[in-house]
Amino acid sequence: KGYVHAQKLVGSNKIPVPNKHATEEDWNDVFKRLGAPDSPEGYQYNLKDVELDQGQVSEFNKKAHQLGLLPKQAEGLIKFYNEMNGNNAASQEDQAAQAQLNTETELKKEFGPQFEKRLDQAKRLAVNSLGSEFLENTFLKDGSRLGDNLQVIKAFSNLADKLSEDPIIQG
Fold first, then answer.
1. What whole-number distance in Å separates Cα of residue 89 and Cα of residue 102?
2. Residue 70, Cα to own-chain centre: how many angstroms?
3. Which residues have a Cβ under 8 Å from the Cβ of 89 and sit 6 or more positions away?
């Protein structure tokens, strides 16, 4: 019975599992036989509708090759990372929208009927000082954008109120 089993194994394509004394080269041989590419450039990804930074992909490929990842594993990691980043971006946008709504409600209570006027003054001063791109794309720890933060809006509103000219008094 043992002879029959030994004969079945002869000629089959086996991969010896390295032991605890194995070198990096021993492990690299195993990874290559399992299907890892010969160089980092051997990783190809089939990702539709995803734009990847080629510099980051190149660095990822180097690390994946060093670790002996199979192409399917590397592609799965990149897909997971992109989905996770997409979910984080959506979550951050939701937090920003909620923070904006809370800020607006709070300012309406505080400014009362002058809400529109004071908000418009604060926006003009903030945009002229910092730029709309900076205000909309800078996120704070609490999830709000810099341009939607209650303290920032109040500060710019108070500053705009002090810098603005008095209206003409009509008799």
1. 20
2. 24
3. none
Q: Return the pLDDT at 16.
A: 78
pTM of the model: 0.50
CA-closest candidate to residue 65, choices 23, 13, 27, 15: 27
Angle, alpha carbons 83-146-139 (nearest 5°): 20
Q: What angle do CA 112, 114, 115 make, to 5 degrees?
A: 70
Cα torsion at 73, 78, 84, 87 (round to 10°)?
Answer: -130
User: Tell me, what's the pLDDT at 141?
Assistant: 77
How far apart are alpha carbons 17 and 139 in whole angstroms?
49
Mean pLDDT of successive 10-residue stretches along the chain, which has 171 residues: 84 79 86 86 78 83 89 89 82 79 85 83 79 79 75 82 75 76
C-alpha span between 127 and 86 (Å, rounded):
28
Q: What is the DSSP letter of 18?
A: P
Question: 71 Cβ partners below 8 Å, 6+ apart?
Answer: 35, 36, 37, 42, 43, 44
Instruction: Identify the pLDDT of residue 136.
Output: 77
DSSP output for 58-92: HHHHHHHHHHT--HHHHHHHHHHHHHHHHHHHHHH
